Amino acid sequence: MTENLAGWQQADRQHFLHPFTDHRQLGERGTRVITRAEGVYIWEAGGQKILDGMSGLWCVNLGYSRAELAEAGCRQLRELPYYNSFFQCTHPPAIELARELCELAPPGFNRVFFTNSGSEANDTIIRLVRYYWSLLGKPEKQIIIARRNGYHGSTVGAASLCGMPWMHAQAGLPIPNILHIEQPYWFGLGGDLDPAEFGRRIARQLATTIEEAGVDKVAAFIAEPVQGAGGAIIPPATYWPEIQKICDHYGILLIADEVICGIGRLGHWFGSQHYGIRPDLMPFAKGITSGYQALGGVMVSDRVGDVLVEKGGEFYHGFTYSGHPVACAVARATLKVMRDEKLVERVRDAVIPAFSSRWQKLAEHPLVGEARSAGLIGGLELVPRKDSRNRFPKELKVGERCRDFCIEQGLVMRAVGDTMIVAPPFIISNEQLDELVDKAWKALDLTRQSLGQARGKARSQASG
Ligand SMILES: *Cc1c(COP(=O)(O)O)cnc(C)c1O
C-alpha cells in the first residue's frame, strides 16, 4: 500500500482535477490518499487514522461501515441496475422511496422530484418555481431572492443562487433575476445590535427587496435553515419567524434548502421543523443515502404540486439518472436504518446534547470568540482577543493553520476563513465526541503557539 502512495500522488497531480481546489497549491502540497473507512474514522494510505468530524462532506451520517446499505445497493444492481422514469415508465425503488419521503415530510408534502445531487435539486427549483408562476398566469414572477454567503451548489443555476461572489466572478454569474440579501450572521455582522434585534433587521431586508423589485416580479426566497458551507451560521431565534411572515404576506414561495439540515442533522427529519418554518419546496441530497450513492431531489408541497398536475403541460426537465434505482434502494436502506434505530429521536435526545455541551467547552479556549452549535453542526470563531469580535489579519490564515493542526492530530475539522466547523456523524459515541473536542483543543493550542511565533517574527523583522 505505502509503495503505491508516491505513485498515486504523482498520478493524482498529473491527471485528476479536483473540485474546489487551487491546483498549483495542490501540486506543491500534495494530497492525502484515503483508502478505507470504518464507523467515524477514515484511514490514509500509510496508516494514519483520522476522526472524520465532517461526515465526509456533511453526508456520511450513519458512518462508513453500514453493511445494510452496501447490500441494498448490491441487491438492486443485480435485480434492476438501471431503468429511466421518462416516457411513462417507473420502477419500485423510486416509487417506494418517494412514498416514504412523503410520509416523513411535514403535512402537505406529497410529491418528490429526484435528481443526482443538491446542485441539480436547486437547478430544478429554479425551473419549477418559474414554471409554477407561469402556469398561474404570472410569467413575469421570475426573481428568486437568495442570501450572501449562502451555498446551494455548483451548477450554473445553483451557483447563481449561492452568495459567493468569487464563484460568480469566474463564470459570469449569476444568471438573470437572482438577487441576494444579507445573511443572519450575528458574530460577523451584528455590530452593536443584540442578536434578536439583528435577526429581525436582517430578515426585514427580504421585505425591502421585494418592495424594491416589485412583488409582481418576485417568485421565491431560498435559504438554508442553518448555513453550512458558509461557516455554520445559525440564525438568531427571531430570524425565521420574521422571514416566514414576510413570505406569507407577499405570497412568494419559500424554499428551505435542506441538503445539509434535512434527514436528521438538526434532530428532526427536516431542518425546517426545528425552526417551525413552513416551506413550499425542500431540496435535499447528501444524508439521504448517507453519502453511499449520489442522490438528491426536491420535496414538492401541494401548493406547487397540485398546480403542476392540475394545469398539465410538460415540465421540460429531468435527468437520465433521475430516481436511479440503485441510489433509491440505498436511500431506502438508509431511511430504514434510521427508523429501526430511532436515530432521529436519538440524535435529538442524546447525541445533540452530548455534542453541544462538549462543544461549548471550546468557548473557554483563549483563541475562541464564540462556540455555537445547532443540531450536529458546530462552529468556532477564532479571534485575537476574546473581549471583541475583531478578526485576525487575513494573511495570517489562522483558520487554515488550525485545520492543518487538526489533521496532524488526527481530526477532520474544516476552516471557512477563521471559522472552524464540524458536522459529526449521527452514530458518534460520547468517547468519540471527547476525542473530537480534545483534539480540537490541542489544535487550537498549537495554532495559538504558531501565531505567537508568527507575531514574534513579524515584530523582529519590523524592528530589524
Ligand atoms: C452541498 C450542498 C448543495 C449542493 O449539493 P451537491 O450534491 O454538492 O450538488 C446544495 N445546498 C446545500 C445547502 C449544500 O450544503
SS summary, helix count: 17
Q: Fraction of residues in helices?
A: 40-55%
| Structural class computed from helices and strand pairing | alpha/beta
Shape: globular
Write out key terms for the chains shown.
17 helices; 464 residues; 15 strands; Aspartate Aminotransferase, domain 2; Aspartate Aminotransferase, domain 1; alpha/beta; binds pyridoxal-5'-phosphate
Compact description:
Helix content is 46%, strand content 15%. It is built from 17 helices and 15 strands.
Structure write-up:
With 464 residues, the chain is of the alpha/beta class. The chain has two domains: 156 residues, Aspartate Aminotransferase, domain 1 (Alpha-Beta Complex); 274 residues, Type I PLP-dependent aspartate aminotransferase-like (Major domain) (Aspartate Aminotransferase, domain 2, 3-Layer(aba) Sandwich). It contains 17 helices and 15 strands. Strands 1-2-3-13 form a four-stranded mixed β-sheet. It has a four-stranded parallel β-sheet with strand order 6-5-7-8, sandwiched between helices. The longest helix is centred in the last third of the chain and has 34 residues. The radius of gyration is 23 Å and the shape is globular. The chain starts with a helix and ends with a helix. 46% of the residues are buried. The structure holds pyridoxal-5'-phosphate (PLP).
Which helices and strands occur, and which strands form pairs?
Blueprint: H1 2-15, H2 23-29, E1 34-38, E2 41-44, E3 49-52, H3 55-58, H4 67-79, H5 92-104, E4 109-115, H6 118-135, E5 143-147, H7 156-161, H8 165-171, E6 178-181, H9 186-189, H10 195-213, E7 218-223, H11 239-250, E8 253-256, H12 271-275, E9 281-284, E10 296-301, H13 302-311, H14 325-340, H15 343-361, E11 368-374, E12 377-382, H16 398-409, E13 411-412, E14 414-416, E15 419-422, H17 430-463
Parallel strand pairs: 3-13, 5-6, 5-7, 7-8
Antiparallel strand pairs: 1-2, 2-3, 4-10, 9-10, 11-12, 12-15, 14-15
Helix pairs in contact: 4-14, 5-14, 10-11, 15-17, 16-17
Bound molecules: pyridoxal-5'-phosphate.
